[in-house]
Design a protein that fits this description.
By secondary structure, the chain is of the alpha+beta class. The protein has a domain of 184 residues: Arylamine N-acetyltransferase fold (2-Layer Sandwich), CATH 3.30.2140. The protein contains 8 helices and 14 strands. Strands 2, 3, 4, 5, 6, 7, 8, 9 and 10 form a 9-stranded antiparallel beta sheet that branches. It has a 5-stranded antiparallel beta sheet with strand order 1-11-12-13-14, covered by helices on one side. Strand 4 and strand 5 form a beta hairpin. The chain is globular. InterPro entries: Arylamine_N-AcTrfase, Arylamine_NAT_domain_sf, Papain-like_cys_pep_sf.
């Protein structure tokens, strides 16, 4: 992985975070296609770097952690709990990265969908804006810890996830992956989610639509009539390997549907 790390040497953290966002979209196709490999540095190299895939937080932020550590930064992985529409998700299923620099603590994030600050967030420091919005890192006591990443939404600061300072190891990342793959409360097991940064804005691709958003809060939604429309937009914004996994998901879903229909027919 040396050549991968070298491309970031000599650059500041904002450059690294922006480059990560360009290289690695947030996508859950491994969940849908039922890949169960353990989270290890070797797995991340093969999936993300060699095969030009994206991933979920426990993959994207784990690779960010490895990269920053290789570049000499003082970093640790930790886990938090996401809050959506005022409701907490499954406990400790968001992996993120904390960085200490010049005696100060920062949050660096590469695995939170397209809600990426693209710059380090200083604890209790100034907010940071990106195409995804405005973010800050605060000492905030919640049910899920004493720290929080917040986003400004409609002129109000809301908690996106809460966490504490406890570091995690690789086996805990694998347990997180297992939870996301198998827990009935997981939001990633039902349909594809592909998101990232593009052209000064953000994109998110679901099975039935493409959504583009820009910093001025304008947005465009394109509804899909067929699965080919979905694949066309995946190909527009993602690597061929991600397109291949999206095709596999659609084909597997079709086969499962036919198999279930056949079983129902046998019982009639």
């Amino acid at each position: 992985m040396n050549s991968f790390f070298k491309q970031f040497a000599g650059h500041d953290l904002s450059f690294i975070l922006k480059r990560f966002a360009e290289l690695f979209p947030f996508e859950n196709l491994d969940v849908l296609n039922r890949y169960e490999q353990e989270i290890t540095p070797e797995f991340l190299k093969e999936k993300l770097i060699d095969n030009q895939r994206g991933g979920l937080c426990y993959e994207l932020n784990a690779l960010l952690f490895l990269t920053l550590k290789e570049l000499g930064f003082d970093v640790q992985l930790t886990t938090g709990t996401v809050k959506n529409e005022g409701v907490w998700a499954i406990d400790h299923t968001h992996a993120t990265v904390l960085l200490k620099q010049d005696g100060h603590l920062h949050l660096v994030e590469s695995g939170f969908g397209n809600r990426l600050p693209l710059s380090p967030l200083l604890l209790d420091g100034e907010s940071v804006s990106s195409p995804a919005g405005t973010f800050r890192f605060r000492t905030v006591t919640t049910e899920k810890g004493t720290l929080a990443m917040e986003q400004l939404v409609n002129d109000e600061w809301i908690v996106r996830y809460g966490f504490s300072l406890e570091p995690v190891n690789w086996s805990e990342l694998t347990k997180m992956k297992e939870t996301i793959h198998h827990d009935e409360r997981s939001t990633f097991t039902q349909a594809p989610v592909i998101a990232g940064i593009t052209g000064g804005g953000t994109f998110s691709i679901a099975r039935d639509r493409l959504r583009l958003k820009w910093p001025d809060r304008s947005e465009k939604i394109v509804e899909f009539e067929h699965d080919n429309d979905f694949l066309k937009e995946v190909a527009r914004y993602c690597s061929p390997s991600i397109v291949k996994e999206a095709e596999l998901y659609l084909n597997t879903e079709f086969r499962d549907k036919k198999r279930n229909e056949s079983k129902e027919g046998d019982h009639k």
